[in-house]
Amino acid sequence: MIPGSPLFYRPFLLYGSRLHDNLSPNIGFTMRMNLIGSLVLAVLFAVTSGIAQAKIYKWVDENGITQYTQQPPPKGSATEVNVPAAPSAPPAEQLRDLQDRLEALNKRQEEELRSEQETEAQRADREQLAADCKRIREQLAVVSNNPRLMEESEDGTRIRMTEERRQERIALAKQQLQEHCSDI
Hints:
The protein is mainly alpha-helical.
């Protein structure tokens, strides 16, 4: 048989999921780095918020506009505004809760990504199966409708396909169509 000729028949193979190549090995690392960065920022914000508190003054300028500043006005009366202090560092319990929520979110995002990639891989598998079934049907039509076919022998010479060999090819194609292509 000559590869590429209409008589060449590649055995039909079902391919498994292609998911193993689709996931980048760096996705988990990136998500962990995002989680660590978020936790560091949360702790830094909680620790520094109490330090940054300054006095705030409220006063009315000569145009009648109320001003809020960190320095008292050069002249005139100003009232000091009491700004509530920022909460101190969150308790360890709140940090653990925040960390758990972030981990749950990252896990959910990873699952959604895998699901999306599985769906894409399944779609690609269905398309490959449909193409293979179409090819088998075409080859079955050629072999069934042409009793005088040529094929390549083991030594490379072209010989006429025997009726027995032609019937084997027809039976094999029908079997594969029945097993793999009945719903396509």
